[in-house]
């Protein structure tokens, strides 16, 4: 009986880890940047799925959602609303948006 409880506990832990990893349930937080020559771009993830995107000297705030390996960022700029949809992966202290690595600032 004790063996069954240990096996059940191990399976439960494995399922939870898989769920958090595969579904990206763990929220993002902090600032992730890339500096490529003259180009600097960053994503600052905040509470309640809020994000601030900074690129080419322009900062916009919006909301993000991660689902099925995609990140959707909804924001407004100059009175127009946009949905930015890109491939998304998370690995260690980096995120990858359309295959481009953004490293979390310390």
Question: Could you name the key traits of this structure?
Answer:
eight-stranded antiparallel barrel; 1 helix; 21% helix; Lipocalin; alpha+beta; 106 residues
Short description:
With 106 residues, the protein is an alpha+beta fold. The protein is built from one helix and eight strands.
Please, could you describe this protein's structure?
The protein is an alpha+beta fold and 106 residues long. It has one domain (28-104): Lipocalin (Beta Barrel), CATH 2.40.128.370. It contains 1 helix and 8 strands; from the N terminus they run H-E-E-E-E-E-E-E-E. It has one helix at residues 2-23; strands at residues 30-36, 39-45, 50-55, 58-67, 70-77, 80-91, 94-97, 100-104. It is globular. The N and C termini lie far apart (47 Å).
**Count of discrete domains:** 1
The poorly predicted ranges are: 16-24
Beta-strand content bin: over 45%
CATH topology: Lipocalin
End-to-end Cα distance, whole Å, is: 47 Å
- Strand element count: 8
Describe how the helices and strands are arranged.
Blueprint: H1 2-23, E1 30-36, E2 39-45, E3 50-55, E4 58-67, E5 70-77, E6 80-91, E7 94-97, E8 100-104
Antiparallel strand pairs: 1-2, 1-8, 2-3, 3-4, 4-5, 5-6, 6-7, 7-8
């Amino acid at each position: 009986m004790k063996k069954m409880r240990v096996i059940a506990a191990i399976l439960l832990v494995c399922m939870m880890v898989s769920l958090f990893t595969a579904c990206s349930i763990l929220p993002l937080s902090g600032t992730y940047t890339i500096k490529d020559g003259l180009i600097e771009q960053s994503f600052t993830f905040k509470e309640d799925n809020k994000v601030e995107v900074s690129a080419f000297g322009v900062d916009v705030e919006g909301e993000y959602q991660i689902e099925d390996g995609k990140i959707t960022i909804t924001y407004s700029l100059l009175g127009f609303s946009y949905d930015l949809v890109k491939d998304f992966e998370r690995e260690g202290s980096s995120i990858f948006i359309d295959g481009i690595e953004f490293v979390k600032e310390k």
